[in-house]
Specification:
Keywords: Cell cycle, Cell division, Cell inner membrane, Cell membrane, Membrane, Protein transport, Transmembrane, Transmembrane helix, Transport. This protein is an alpha/beta fold. The chain has 3 helices and 7 strands. It has a domain of 87 residues: Nucleotidyltransferase, domain 5 (2-Layer Sandwich). The longest helix is centred in the N-terminal third of the chain and has 17 residues.
Amino acid sequence: MGASLSSGGGSRSGRRGRSYRKMSDINVTPFVDVMLVLLIVFMVTAPLLTSGVPVDLPKSEAKQIADEDNKPLEISVMKDGKIFIGETEVERDRLIPLLSSMTNNDPDRRIFIRGDQGLPYGDVMDVIGSVNKAGFRKVALISNPSK
């Protein structure tokens, strides 16, 4: 007998007591997932960016050299006297022939020498002298900046 009449401004869908609101929160889970993946990628690639073999370099007040088009060759002299070109160990008597072949006998090719700070001065000077005697003019010593 009676009709049910709605008394004003509610929802016209016929549902009583329930109102749905749009979700206004930002879902940060995908953002966190992407950031964690990037973090892992950087953590894996960071150790690969170091050059050559680990050498305990002395401190210096010199400025860093800007990188140019041709990358310099790095010669590392370890504390035990072993010599490396890049990451390849080289015998002392094979150093100059190998340098000449790697640089195509270009006397203007830059060569960086990294000597361990615990190494006697004479051992580093022997390497510099050999490189100089082979005709390479652009030879530099590498050190860590002092703080």
